[in-house]
Amino acid sequence: MSAKTIAVSTVVLAAAMAMPASAQKKPEERPAAYEALMRCRGVADSAERLACFDQATAALQTATDNREVVMVDRQQIRKTRRTLFGLALPDFNLFGGGDDEKEEDEVKQIETTVANAFVDQNGKWALKVAEGATWRQTDNNVLGRKPRPGSKIVISRSALGSYMAKIDGQPSIRVRRDQ
């Protein structure tokens, strides 16, 4: 087996093992290039198995190069979830979230810094955080100190799909994500 074949096979197997168990239970949802690679494991003859793996890994590499198959690791999933925190998205388990998801993988709050803050025409705070997301105040609570660029902000999930923001340790304000 060539080094390239071994490397590609290792990446594919690692990606498969990182998939949530709910995705692993549904083979019909797996890409055809991946399924072809897995079928090679069942070939008894060594030479035929090697030829099968060579062909399947080449097909998988082509699919990956053409962005028909995209592999992500758990760290990339966590980063993406953090970036999407607060957005109302449909639940289609693209970034995990299945029945067997680990509690530790769920993003319940983010800790970041304020990049920009201003009071809008309604007298409520608009807060842009370091990652680029904009959060807007939805309640009438008053902040004792104005948020400034560099202020520490912790945004956490609250009841009924709402979010609370705590800025520089002040009492929390209710917020929603705009962008």
From TrEMBL:
Residues 1-23 form the signal peptide. Keywords: Signal. It comes from the Bacteria. This is Uncharacterized protein. It comes from Allosphingosinicella indica.
